[in-house]
Amino acid sequence: MGSQEKYLIEINNIDTELRRINDHAKKLRAQKTTTMNGLYQYMISNNLDQVTDGKRVISLKKCEPKKKNKSKPKKQKRFDAIQMFRDVGIPNPEQFYEEYECIQKIPKEINDTSSPKSTRNKCKKEKIDPFLGF
């Protein structure tokens, strides 16, 4: 067995172990959330602001269930942004929005095949010769 195979086996073993650890951590986080919700209900029903075990103090605010903010759908974000660009007087707001989206993305290298996502690229940038600079 060559050293290449040894490296591949080691990498696969590490990936397997990381997956196992992540699965366990996910279960622990879910258990902690459930327990914190139970403690929150207990604190509310007994009118407590904080509880302590001698080492650690947990306040009512810390164990309060967290609410996730919903984000707007992409079409709604686009519509709102274009409307705002129109309101402030930007000419051709649709094209401006497309350019705005392009500058927020990291440009992919030509040979980069690490992402299996769509190869459609709305950003049409001119290729610059690295030797000539234009």
Proportion of residues in helical segments? 40-55%
Q: On the 0-100 scale, what is the average pLDDT?
A: 84
Spans where pLDDT lies below 50 across 5 or more residues: none
Strand order of the largest sheet: 1-2
Strand-residue proportion: under 5%
Number of strands: 2
Largest sheet: 2 strands, antiparallel
SSE pattern? HEEHH
Distance between the termini: 50 Å
Q: Which of globular, elongated, flat, extended, rod-shaped describes the shape?
A: flat
Given the helix and strand composition, which structural class is it? mainly alpha
CA radius of gyration is 26 Å
H/I helix tally: 3
Brief account:
The protein is mostly helical. The protein contains three helices and two strands.
Structural summary, described in words:
This protein is mainly alpha-helical and 134 residues long. Among the domains are: 3-59; 74-103. The protein has helices at 3-45, 74-88, 93-103, and strands at 50-52, 57-59. A two-stranded antiparallel sheet has the order 1-2. Helix 2 (74-88) packs across helix 3. The longest helix has 43 residues, at 3-45. It is flat, with a radius of gyration of 26 Å. The model has no long low-confidence stretch (mean pLDDT 84).
